[in-house]
């Protein structure tokens, strides 16, 4: 029944939105059907003599993490992450972010189920690259990033994909917590709200998971990693604000292009200076070693912009996750303008919820 509803939405959306969007819906439906078709119950995979020990260990961990997510994090108790799928590719999907050359306002695309989002997801890398290249040729900044896991918001029972097996145990658990969080609350047409909330749940979930397992070394390592990542993200968001302020100035485009190059170069220098004495886990090193543009900055902001606000909301609920989820659901039900007025007031310390 859920599959039928998805297909109906896809077909209806294609008819309503024209040929270009029709092709996009078709690839989305085909990609999701492949996942649905290839998924197998984890117990069956564990009993399969052809399953490698490495896969078995991660799937056994998945069952433990899944149980913890329900019992200790109050995340949905359903069929998600009780199956496994091997897609024979490094990522489940590839997301494309697009912005104007001299603006940090992302391009958005609107769909029937999720509303407007600031990225396009493709099940084939070449399709994502083709879409990005088309916009790059028109003068836009583009960024294509591989996505190891994603959520269907409860419309499907999402499986554990092969694309997250090679990550560390804490990162692996974080993926499951993050994607299950999308089933708790979802604000249609508000990508930053949704992803920042899921990132918040991911972080607190991993922290509580490590405490639950008694992994003291793991807790110490994770906290160090999180501390460094927070420093880098703060640095990225700070320079993003500087870029926004510069773009708003009454300057010739040529001057803005030069200032953009200088600000991005300054961001890269500040990062290398900050991370110079880090002996392990060089957070975001690969990100900084590659070209940086507006679209790439937006991709980071999407997942982290509102994390401090959600952490504040969690503190106001004294760490009680059920109360926290209820507050987030209430915010998700508000109009986007009303929701962001509340979030802005919370972020500036002018309100509580």
3D architecture notes:
The protein has 353 residues and is mainly alpha-helical. It has a domain at 1-38. 62% of the residues lie in helices and 8% in strands. The protein has 14 helices and eight strands. The chain has helices spanning 2-17, 19-38, 42-47, 53-73, 125-136, 169-184, 191-213, 216-247, 253-274, 285-289, 294-304, 307-316, 321-333, 336-347; strands at 40-41, 83-85, 93-99, 109-111, 115-117, 120-122, 141-147, 160-161. The strands form three sheets. It has a three-stranded mixed sheet with strand order 1-2-8. Strand 4 and strand 5 form a beta hairpin. Helix 1 packs antiparallel against helix 2 (19-38) and helix 4 (53-73) crosses helix 6 (169-184). The longest helix is centred in the middle third of the chain and has 32 residues, at 216-247. It is globular and about 65 Å long. The model is unreliable at 1-19 (pLDDT under 50).
Q: Mean of residue pLDDT?
A: 91
- Shape descriptor: globular
| Residue share in β-strands | 5-15%
Work out the radius of gyration. Answer: 21 Å
Which residue ranges are poorly predicted, with pLDDT under 50 across at least 5 consecutive positions?
1-19
Helix and strand sequence: HHEHHEEEEEHEEHHHHHHHHH
Secondary structure: helix percent: 55-70%
In whole angstroms, the N-to-C terminal distance is 38 Å
By secondary-structure content and strand pairing, the structural class works out as: mainly alpha
């Amino acid at each position: 029944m859920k599959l039928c509803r998805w297909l109906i939405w896809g077909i209806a959306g294609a008819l309503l939105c024209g040929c270009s969007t029709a092709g996009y819906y078709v690839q989305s439906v085909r990609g999701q059907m492949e996942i649905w078709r290839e998924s197998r119950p984890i117990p069956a995979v564990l009993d399969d003599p052809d399953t490698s020990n490495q896969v078995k260990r991660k799937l056994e961990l998945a069952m433990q993490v899944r149980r913890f997510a329900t019992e200790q994090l109050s995340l949905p108790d359903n069929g998600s992450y009780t199956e496994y799928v091997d897609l024979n590719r490094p990522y489940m999907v590839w997301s494309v972010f697009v912005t104007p050359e001299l603006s940090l306002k992302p391009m958005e695309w609107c769909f029937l189920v999720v509303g407007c989002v600031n990225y396009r997801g493709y099940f084939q890398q070449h399709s994502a690259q083709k879409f990005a290249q088309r916009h790059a040729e028109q003068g836009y900044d583009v960024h294509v990033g591989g996505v190891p896991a994603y959520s269907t918001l409860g419309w499907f029972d999402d499986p554990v994909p092969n694309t997250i097996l090679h990550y560390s145990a804490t990162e692996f658990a974080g993926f499951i917590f993050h994607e299950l969080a999308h089933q708790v609350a979802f604000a249609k047409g508000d990508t930053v709200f949704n992803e920042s909330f899921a990132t918040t749940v991911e972080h607190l979930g991993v922290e509580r998971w490590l405490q639950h397992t008694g992994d003291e070394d793991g807790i110490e390592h994770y906290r160090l990693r999180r501390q460094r990542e927070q420093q880098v993200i703060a640095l990225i968001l700070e320079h993003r604000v500087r870029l926004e302020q510069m773009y708003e100035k009454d300057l010739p485009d040529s001057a803005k292009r030069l200032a953009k190059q200088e600000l991005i170069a300054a961001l890269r220098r500040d990062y290398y200076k900050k991370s110079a004495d880090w002996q392990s886990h060089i957070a975001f090193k690969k990100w900084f070693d590659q070209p940086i543009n507006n679209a790439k900055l937006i991709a980071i902001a999407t997942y982290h912009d509102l994390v401090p606000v959600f952490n504040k909301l969690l503190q106001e609920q004294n760490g009680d996750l059920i109360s926290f989820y209820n507050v987030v659901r209430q915010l998700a039900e508000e109009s986007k303008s009303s929701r962001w007025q509340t979030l802005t007031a919370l972020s500036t310390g002018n309100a509580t919820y």
